[in-house]
Amino acid sequence: xxxxxxxxxxxxxxxxxxxxxxxxxxxxxxxxxxxxxxxxxxxxxxxxxxxxxxxxxxxxxxxxxxxxxxxxxxxxxxxxxxxxxxxxxxxxxxxxxxxxxxxxxxxxxxxxxxxxxxxxxxxxxxxxxxxxxxxxxxxxxxxxxxxxxxxxxxxxxxxxxxxxxxxxxxxxxxxxxxxxxxxxxxxxxxxxxxxxxxxxxxxxxxxxxxxxxxxxxxxxxxxxxxxxxxxxxxxxxxxxxxxxxxxxxxxxxxxxxxxxxxxxxxxxxxxxxxxxxxxxxxxxxxxxx
Length: 289
Prior knowledge:
By secondary structure, this protein is mainly beta. The protein has a single domain (3-288), classed as Beta-galactosidase, Chain A, domain 5, CATH 2.70.98. It contains 1 helix and 22 strands. The protein has one helix spanning 98-101, and strands spanning 3-5, 9-14, 19-25, 30-31, 59-62, 65-68, 81-85, 89-95, 108-117, 120-129, 135-137, 139-140, 144-146, 158-170, 184-194, 205-208, 214-219, 226-229, 235-239, 246-253, 272-274, 279-288. Strands 7-8-9-10-22-18-17-14-15 form a 9-stranded antiparallel sheet, with no helix packed on it. Strands 12, 13, 16, 19 and 20 form a 5-stranded antiparallel sheet that branches. A hairpin with a 3-residue loop joins β1 (3-5) and β2 (9-14). The longest helix has 4 residues, at 98-101. The radius of gyration is 19 Å and the shape is globular.
């Protein structure tokens, strides 16, 4: 499994899905990523591309044709190629092919770049439209961080701390995985969200257009935690599997279909439009302590 490292961190990523599997702090001896226990959720950090979330009836329409994609798209299940590798940075590449074009009729190059600097891991999504017309896509992350982090602490000892006060509702997810029409109040003039496993009883917390650009995992029971910067991502998901010891912080450029979506790709909420030959870039970072 490819790794990158510096004096502070060792980071491991598997070629299937270019999936981040480990952030290990050499100085504290702490692992920050979920261990992918299949009894709860057998993934650690899947990449969401070319859609985020669920399509209505798993189907979208483009130029009069229907296409089928399962939740979060196909990138997470495909083998990426390591296209560049240095001690502290690595690039994984996925290129469109005949198989992808049966589900998604666009030519693309998708690079995922992992870079460590001091105690920070940066993850960059780079999408290049290599086709002859406009390209429509969504992209996002789904990293799962271990909670509790430190020995002797408990899940409920931790809370999320946004970098700005928020008054924001969560957007409920239907049993079909679609975004409901109306939000439900959750945050009111606060930057704090205490963690409990009951918080995710009705699936992920989905937020649109938060004021904040970062959120931290902190606790009064330990000095260890992390800060997650999602500047430039218009949607944020927060999720954990039932009774599992992790928290997913999910930066999204895209979102699941709404319950009343017309399923036309170009009308999809949060869809990104990329001109022929153009490059799209977004980056999230996590700093650990």
